Each structure stands twice: as C-alpha cells, then as structure tokens.
C-alpha cells in the first residue's frame, strides 16, 4: 500500500508532501518535500491508495447558507442571547465539533480563520482529482480523506502542541521514531527534523493509513449527510503499532 500526506497551505512554498510505502511490519518514507505544487500533489495522490490532506475540504453548511442569503440582504439576526452560538455554527463544521469533543483540540475555522485560503486551494484540487467530473467524496470514504495531524498525534500519545516552534520538530521526530520503530524516514529525516510542514505531511500519510485500514473514525449514518458537504476529519482510532501488519 502507498499512502500520501499533504500539509496543504495556500502557497506552494509552505506545502509539504510525503509518500509512505507500506509492507508487512514496515513503513518507509519514499519521498518528502516542501514547495509542493498542484501538479505534484495531483500526481502523488493519483498514484496512492489513500491520501490524507491536512486542510478543511468544505465549509459549514450554515455558513454557506448564510453567505447565499446575505447576498440578497435577507439575513435574520439571532434572537437575544443566542449570538455566540449562532456565530459558532457559522464558524465551525460538525466534524470540528466532533474533534473538539473527542480531543479537546479546536480546529481552525475554515470560514473565519486564515486556513480558508488553503481551503480555496483544496477545493480546486478536489475538482482536479474528480474522475469524469464526478464530485470526490469529502466524507473520507474515497481516495482522499481529511486529516488533522495535531489530533492524530494526540491520539497516539505524542506531543501535539508547540512542536511548530523553532527547533522543536526534531524532538517530535525522535519521539515518533521511538514510538514507531518500524517507520523509516530514510534520507528525508533531516528535512522532517527542521521543517514541521514536512513532518506534518508524514503524519498525514500515517493518518491516511489509519483511514485506509479502517482504524480511524468515520461519520455515523446520522453524521454522513453533513460530512459529505462539510468534510470529515478522520481521527486514528488505535495505537501507532496497529498501522503495520504483524
């Protein structure tokens, strides 16, 4: 199996890309890079069995409706005292709330934070990846799944806060390799130690493996309609050791 991880940013130079090749008892990073272009991402994803993208794949349905309504000047203000909850539904997707409840981590708001710039790019990539113009699933049941490296690291018991500060990515690499002795970063280890974008891409590829092997959360039947529109963050549902075959 081949999994791909993409730490997607609005600009190529901040986008990380990693390819992991899996065999019984072993996983090898066969490629990792920074400055990933749309063409490079598309090529890598198409050659993979599963790709994890660290970026929202959709917007809150309430926000989409709000913008469409506001275009015609028909927005109704919230009732007194309900403003905070009203704004929260516009800012956060169902999957963001699920992650918050499960991990205590709060994903960036795709409609209110700068991550929206990367989401514009992600929407274009999904269109380019769609076969024969058929919409690509945003719920994670197709070739692409939305992932959240910090939440994946939390689930695996690894440092998930603060590692993006200068020099700390190297410490996380050491912890990751200790926790997953079957993982080889090969010649890309120095890059992962100095760049949290490259490291996040590797973690995204590991999370994609969890989703591909049914070791990650999936939306319930009740959650699926919203996930199909807004996207679904797949959280690893087991330890790192479960990712490799015995």
From TrEMBL:
InterPro entries documented for this protein: DUF429 (IPR007362)
Recorded superkingdom: Bacteria
Full protein name: DUF429 domain-containing protein
């Amino acid at each position: 199996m081949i999994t791909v991880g993409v730490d997607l940013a609005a600009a190529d130079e901040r986008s990380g890309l990693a390819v992991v090749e899996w065999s019984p008892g072993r996983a090898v990073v066969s490629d990792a890079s920074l400055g990933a272009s749309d063409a490079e991402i598309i090529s890598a994803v198409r050659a993979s069995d599963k790709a994890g993208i660290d970026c929202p794949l959709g917007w809150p349905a309430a926000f989409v409706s709000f913008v469409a309504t506001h275009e015609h000047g028909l927005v109704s203000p919230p009732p007194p005292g309900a403003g905070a909850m009203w704004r929260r539904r516009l800012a956060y997707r169902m999957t963001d709330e699920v992650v918050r409840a499960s991990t205590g981590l709060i994903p960036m708001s795709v409609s209110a934070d700068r991550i929206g710039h990367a989401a514009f790019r992600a929407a274009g990539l999904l269109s380019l990846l769609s076969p024969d113009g058929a919409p690509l699933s945003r719920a994670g049941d197709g070739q692409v799944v939305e992932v959240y490296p910090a939440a994946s690291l939390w689930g695996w018991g690894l440092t998930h806060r603060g590692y993006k500060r200068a020099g700390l990515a190297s410490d996380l690499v050491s912890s990751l390799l200790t926790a997953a002795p079957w993982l080889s970063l090969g010649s890309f280890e120095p890059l992962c130690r100095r760049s949290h974008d490259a490291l996040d891409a590797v973690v995204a590829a590991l999370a994609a493996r969890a989703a591909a092997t049914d070791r990650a959360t999936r939306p319930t039947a009740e959650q699926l309609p919203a996930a199909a529109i807004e996207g679904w963050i797949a959280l690893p549902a087991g330890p790192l050791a479960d990712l490799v075959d015995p």
